[in-house]
From TrEMBL, chain A:
Its EC number is 3.5.2.3. Pfam families: Amidohydro_3, DHOase. The lineage of its organism: Bacteria, Pseudomonadati, Pseudomonadota, Gammaproteobacteria, Oceanospirillales. Residues 341-422 form the Amidohydrolase domain. This is Dihydroorotase. InterPro entries: Amidohydro_3, DHOase, DHOase/Allantoinase_Hydrolase, DHOase_cat, Metal-dep_hydrolase_composite, Metal_Hydrolase. It comes from the Bacteria. Residues 50-235 form the Dihydroorotase catalytic domain. Keywords: Hydrolase, Pyrimidine biosynthesis, Zinc. One of its GO terms (molecular function) is dihydroorotase activity. The keyword Cell membrane does not apply. It is an enzyme of class 3 (hydrolase). Transmembrane segments: none annotated. PANTHER family: ALLANTOINASE (PTHR43668:SF2).
Automatic annotation (TrEMBL), chain B:
Its EC number is 2.1.3.2. L-aspartate binds at residues 99, 184, 239. Pathway: Pyrimidine metabolism; UMP biosynthesis via de novo pathway; (S)-dihydroorotate from bicarbonate: step 2/3. InterPro entries: Asp/Orn_carbamoyltranf_P-bd, Asp/Orn_carbamoylTrfase, Asp/Orn_carbamoylTrfase_sf, Asp_carbamoyltransf, Asp_carbamoyltransf_Asp/Orn-bd. Residues 172-316 form the Aspartate/ornithine carbamoyltransferase Asp/Orn-binding domain. Carbamoyl phosphate binds at residues 71-72, 121, 151, 154, 280-281. This is Aspartate carbamoyltransferase. Belongs to the aspartate/ornithine carbamoyltransferase superfamily. ATCase family. Catalyzes the condensation of carbamoyl phosphate and aspartate to form carbamoyl aspartate and inorganic phosphate, the committed step in the de novo pyrimidine nucleotide biosynthesis pathway. It comes from Marinobacterium alkalitolerans. It catalyses: carbamoyl phosphate + L-aspartate = N-carbamoyl-L-aspartate + phosphate + H(+). Keywords: Pyrimidine biosynthesis, Transferase.
Length: 424, 335
């Protein structure tokens, strides 16, 4: 199939390309930018005038509910939502039921995603068996069956020694470890940021130290072991500063942030709206400013959705009794684009944080429009407005605090491996 | 979603009448004063031979207690009966089933019974807000205590007790002593005292029992009784739960009593005419010395009497707010 994407502003940070051009796709690959290849005849033309053409987005943190909790979402429903959000690669968490701790589960998820065919799904494997923080999971075997990184999520480790051994073993095989840093003894029964709003509402707080103590411990052991490490979904300004200092010392660490942490603060919780019940929690204005600064300086290289779809029941209870997390695949791009209107960063830099930067963190060949690369492409209108609603969201999870809001920036076409997987 | 983020929009009708009573926070001073004035008239009435008024005749009040409390439940029941309402008491054990589902299911069942008012006590902060947001529009919700968040009728009965003994709030210095961290009573007292214009509000507790940035609520923070009680007019003690000794919040009851228990010596730091209050039930020898609790400056029993009057006032006001709302919606339907 030959596809031509015509007349769009093509932005590819890997080639420092930013100009209006036609893009040509043949047999799943990008074959030309600008001039048509000799003898090219388009089977399909996508009119991209007035729109942006960029590499397909790569989301570093999505929770798939299949296998195990398909009432909250299936691989089919959530990868379709990804395609509608311009996302062509999803890095998914290992907390399915069963957990991604055997090659069978890792392969099943990828096979299922391939069958559905909306987005590339790259599983993260469990770092420890059962995510219990005690025994090493079979990292080498899981890596051989497609796991791109390993994480214990927010479950903690039984001891610092266990953590150290996990990192040593991962370093042995040059595997990427992802931390969702959280000291659960400091979280206790907390359900939101510990500050004036939690005091007013009488909700148990989660102090910054729940994150920063774990970031600090992990950084020290990363330094000792030399493991490749990535910190996902930072929420605290101080975490950013610690990672910045570690990078200045030459440590091989990277970080991402969930887009909603760049936009919202804990004050949103006043009124007990469970859509704002998140982990890590929304934090103070100072933290938000620190995260935004981290994005500008590059300490935070990537923006992710931290997509966690839920069924309605999960959020229909008093705040603390609800399940944390929000649906975010389809709002990742428009919410990120709002950072440009807020003059935080420029569009090419923003696209880098959503495409080539996550590819670089993972060490995968994706997030580029270079000639010869797989045609994973997102075409979007940065000015088109749409209302977030139960009807407009394709995800099974309608649990977003942006429900009812008008967002700017809408995907018109998504291609994966040269196939049109979404078109408005 | 601005309306969901404004805790007051849900409590008041379009023209500013009370329709749910969920928190004292953010309610206008006039409204709090009206509640106190109405309650005052009910206090006087309770001393008469016939203690009933027909304000809630034909209405059904459902007391939904997801957390045990004999005292609060019985004062609400008595208040509803003195207003001539039919009363349904439901003790619902939350631990037996998953909380959220129980709550939602219970609400749907009760909606089908056409109750006019829910009085709700629940161990989760925000439970009363949740119920107010998820019930049919014509049911008034009264918060009888939600988690650590609010206990607005307790705060208002405390305000009534203070006003009946001290008159004006403007000159008063008030100290709230004890487990502020876990106390919905303290939070509701602080908001009410601020709105009613108390001169100074203090909290006194060890740092383990103070929530973060409590000063942002407009209080002065003290960690010692001597400076904290100096020259205060009102001392409001809080109940200390025994569990607090097990989570490294306090070393022992005896050390807490030594440092923060109100005895005659510590009471002497306050003004000579300072009054002492406690929401009950009292832990004698933990928060307060018996001689103080039973002494001439103690208003603890007055609080109980005033509690019935305040609950009658709040219930009758919320019901009339609901009725006026219903009137509005009827008119809209006709139009």
């Amino acid at each position: 199939m030959n596809i031509m994407i015509q007349g769009g502003r093509v932005i590819d940070p890997t080639q420092q390309w930013d100009q209006v051009a036609d893009l040509y796709i043949q047999n799943g690959e990008i074959t030309a930018l600008g001039e048509a290849p000799a003898g090219f005849e388009a089977d399909e033309v996508i009119d991209a005038q007035g729109q942006i053409v960029c590499p397909g987005l790569i989301d570093l943190c999505t929770t798939l509910r299949e296998p195990g909790q398909t009432r909250k979402g299936t691989i089919a429903s959530e990868t379709a939502a990804a395609a509608a959000g311009g996302i062509t690669t999803l890095v998914v968490t290992p907390d399915t039921q069963p957990i991604v701790e055997t090659t069978a589960v890792a392969e099943m998820i990828q096979d299922r995603a391939a069958d559905v065919g909306f987005a590339r799904v790259l599983p993260m494997g469990a770092l420890t068996q059962g995510l219990e923080g005690e025994q090493l999971a079979p990292l080498h075997g899981l890596a051989s069956s497609g796991c791109v990184a390993f994480t214990n999520m927010r479950n903690g480790f039984s001891s610092s020694q266990t953590l150290l051994r996990c990192l040593e073993y991962a370093a042995t095989h040059d595997l990427l470890v992802v931390f969702q840093a959280q000291d659960n003894t400091l979280v206790a029964s907390g359900c939101m940021h510990d500050d004036t709003t939690s005091t007013r509402l009488g909700l148990n707080g989660i102090p910054e130290a729940a994150e920063t103590i774990e970031v600090s411990r992990c950084l020290l052991l990363v330094e000792q072991t030399g493991v490749r490490a990535h910190f996902g979904q930072l929420s605290c300004e101080r975490s950013v500063r610690m990672i910045e200092a570690a990078r200045e010392r030459g440590l091989n660490v990277t970080a991402d942030v969930a887009v909603h942490h760049l936009l919202l603060t804990d004050e949103s919780v006043s009124g007990f709206n469970a859509a704002y019940h998140l982990q890590p929690p929304l934090r103070s204005q100072l933290d938000r400013a620190g995260l935004r600064q981290g994005l500008v300086t590059g300490t935070i290289a990537a923006i992710c959705s931290d997509h966690q779809p839920h069924d309605p029941i999960a959020k229909q209870a008093p705040f603390a009794a609800t399940e944390p997390g929000m649906s975010g695949l389809e709002t990742l791009l428009p919410l990120s684009l709002s950072l440009i209107e807020q003059e935080l960063i420029e569009l090419p830099q923003l696209i880098e944080t959503l495409t080539s930067a996550p590819a670089r963190i993972l060490g995968i060949e994706a997030g580029t429009l270079e000639i010869g690369s797989q045609a994973d492409i997102c075409v979007f209108d940065p000015n088109a407005e749409w209302v977030v609603s139960d009807d407009t969201l394709r995800s099974a999870g309608k649990n977003t605090p942006f429900l009812g809001q008008t967002l700017k920036g809408r995907v018109n076409a998504t291609l994966m491996d040269g196939r049109i997987v979404f078109r408005r | 979603m601005p309306e969901a983020n404004d805790p007051n929009s849900i409590q008041l009708t379009a023209d500013g009448q009370l329709r749910h009573f969920l928190t004292t926070e953010g309610l206008p001073r006039e409204l709090l004063t009206e509640i106190l004035d109405t309650a005052d008239s009910f206090v006087d009435m309770s001393q008469q031979q016939v203690k009933k008024v027909p304000l809630l005749r034909g209405k059904t009040v459902a007391n939904l207690f997801f957390e045990n409390s004999t005292r609060t439940l019985s004062t609400f029941e008595l208040a509803a009966k003195r207003l001539s309402a039919d009363v349904l008491n439901l003790n619902i054990n939350t631990s037996s089933t998953k909380k959220g589902e129980t709550l939602k299911d219970t609400l749907m069942t009760l909606e089908a019974m056409h109750a006019d008012m829910f009085v709700v006590r629940h161990s989760d902060s925000g439970a009363a807000h949740f119920i107010a947001q998820h019930v049919t529009p014509n049911v008034a919700v009264i918060n009888a205590g939600d988690g650590r968040h609010a206990h607005p009728t307790q705060a208002m009965l405390d305000m009534l007790t203070i006003r009946r003994h001290k008159g004006d709030f403007a000159p008063l210095k008030v100290a709230i002593v004890g487990d502020i961290l876990h106390s919905r009573v303290a939070r509701s007292q602080i908001h009410a005292l601020r709105t009613l214009g108390a001169n100074e509000i203090r909290v006194i507790a060890p740092k383990t029992l103070l929530p973060r940035h409590i000063e942002a609520l407009g209080v002065k923070v003290y960690t010692e009784m001597a400076p904290g009680l100096r020259d205060v007019d009102v001392i409001m003690m809080l109940r200390l739960q025994k569990e607090r000794m097990q989570s490294a919040l306090l070393p022992s009851e005896s050390e807490f009593y030594k440092l923060y228990g109100l005895n005659r010596d510590k009471l002497a730091y306050a003004k000579p005419d300072a009054v002492v209050m406690h929401p009950g039930p009292i832990n004698r020898g933990v928060e307060i010395e018996s001689e103080v609790a039973d002494g001439p400056r103690s208003l603890i029993l007055d609080q109980v009497t005033n509690g019935i009057a305040v609950r009658m006032a709040v219930m009758s006001k919320a019901m009339s707010g609901q009725l006026s709302q219903r009137g509005e919606s009827d008119q809209e339907e006709q139009a």
